[in-house]
Write a structure and sequence with these properties.
The protein contains four helices and eleven strands; from the N terminus they run αβαββββββββαβαβ. The protein has 157 residues and is an alpha+beta fold. The chain has a five-stranded antiparallel sheet. Strands 9-8-10-11 form a four-stranded antiparallel sheet.
Length: 157
Amino acid sequence: MSATTILDTAPLGALIRYTDNSPKPPARFTKKLAAWERSNGVGRLVKKEPPRPYRTWTAPASFTLHEGNFSSDGVILVTIMRTHSADSVLTFEVAEEPKPGQVRVLLDFGGCTELLHLAESVTAAELWIARESYRNARLEIVGEEDAGRAGGAELAA
């Protein structure tokens, strides 16, 4: 799949696998392995951005994958996010979509919606919001996105 297909079809919260289709080098070649890992991996789709016009050029549409966290004693020290543009030469595939009934914790910021957390239930999502202190977050139940737009009420945190 191309990056534009991911932008058009993949839902927020999906696990996206990406690759440059090159073979993985042996572990003894640490620099080659590190370079390979930058072009081959998996992450959770947390944000989609439309093209952004600037004075001299227009940035292409892009999406951001959350690849993981480094933590110590339960405190997240570094969050690894990777942004891919619509014109990326990598190959993408949806490895896993969010399951119906899961709850997305979303934040609208700068004209984009960002996935903050994917919870198993509304209760778990509300507990996560209370623990992390997000005031403007909203909840969206997977599988009920269209119902929310067709007259149903969305959950607000």
